[in-house]
# Entry
Amino acid sequence: MTTLPEAVSLRRTFAIISHPDAGKTTLTEKLLLFGGAIQMAGAVRARGEQRRARSDWMAIERERGISVTASVMSFEHSGLFFNLLDTPGHEDFSEDTYRTLTAVDSAVMVLDAAKGIETQTRKLFEVCRLRDVPIVTFVNKVDREGREPFDLLDEIEKTLALDLCPLTWPIGMGRDLKGVYDLTADQVLLFEQSRGDHIPEGIDMPLEDSRLDELVGADAAAKLREEVALIRGACPPFDLDAFRSGNLSPVFFGSALRNFGVRELLNGIGRLSPPPRPQPTDVRTIDPLEEKVTGFVFKIQANMDPNHRDRIAFFRLCSGRFQRGMKLKHVRSGKLMAIVNPVFFLARDRELAEEAFPGDIMGIPNHGTLRIGDSLSESEDIRFTGIPSFAPEILRRVRLDDPMKAKQLRKALEDLAEEGVSQLFKPLSGSSWIVGVVGQLQFDVIANRIDSEYGLKAGFEDAPFETARWVHCEDKLLVKRFAEANTSSMAEDRDGALVFLARNSWTLGRVQQDFPEVRFSATREQY
Ligand code: G4P
# Structure
């Protein structure tokens, strides 16, 4: 039987971060191919199509050709167990993405060789940095004309203030792409040998070997020697500790589309990326090797199957050996929950999770008991920290076409808020709900889902508020005085926490000045 330390050492839980179009979907597909999780390229898209065909609540996803839901895919390669958490690429859904990043131990940053760092790459990188998540960089699309590799590295280093260490290096680019050179193994990987599903093995080839000139041409060989000498002179050797603390990123070059350099990337993740890391809680740090089972919910997805109003909580196991049927304490309510039908997500299927180890992601079906940020624990009362709710950047009042259906609307809005799609505020005066989101597109998703899943026609109209801040203050009397002085701007979130809805940044500045003892926060940790 696998011991807990063995199982932990074999797990790699990671996400891919990128700007839309950099090649995340294509790379995911190719990674799964190595894991034998799918047989044919195109299956990630095909799987998407199937899912969309089954449940058309994400009609909007189909219409706009974007992916808005994050999912998890697990696969095995070279004796290691990889859990790949997909993150939505569209910037409007960044909140979901942020939370997904709380559940990973490392990330792969995919860049388009022609574009370098783009806005969304940068935003997601910043989130990883907040949590010191180690980052592996993959420069994609080297089969197309791209920018000079040294230029790219320079841009990454400067804009992200991140040290880099190239572990592979392209030999030419675009039409002149001959291959990549593996700087650790001193091997050449030839591009022309990479066709369809055929993935060439690297050829042992020290740089000074004259056969290199025959393989890639004298000019390309000379350029490679020169560039490698520059890299070896300028970049310090790869430092595992600096990588694992989030300060240095190994860089791989390749083409996801042509499945070139992807195996080297995957092997790199396996070799370098950390196994499940200790996780912070409000009491102490939990080590994955602790025997008692603990973990947290980072995502809820409701109505995945419209025929059974199911609700899946995505749960990251942080310590201990989980066994199906186990009773875990739901720390927020203090109640015990028997986890009888947890599932693993494989590329195309779900499978009952009989046993799980730290780093694994299980789906726990439930009827609304589990919320984002909830901790489950076999013994102690601990709450995992750092799973934030962000202040919404756009607020709208909900308009219901049929006022008789107010109760159903409330249920729908609460369900979606629980899923983390939106935030819901109930003004202390007045009767209509205010919905807050981080990006405009979310309103379309909400209206669409309210219609298709709950049969309600609702719309959104302007609310006189620009942003929201959670209100914190020890002095309850002062809070009361503050609320009374600002009645028309006060609301509660769905947990009853007090929120100040600000008309604009000026009003926010003014109340901060008037009530210096009150703290206004743009994030709220959920529990
Ligand atoms: P995303 O998930 O990050 O948004 O990117 P995705 O994988 O969907 O890739 C975006 C586009 O870039 C796709 O082309 C894809 O085929 C292409 N692409 C991805 N990796 C590579 C690569 O290594 N080399 C080249 N040349 N192209 C690459 P598309 O035309 O938008 O879509 P499709 O018609 O191919 O599906």
Observations:
- The two ends are 36 Å apart (CA to CA).
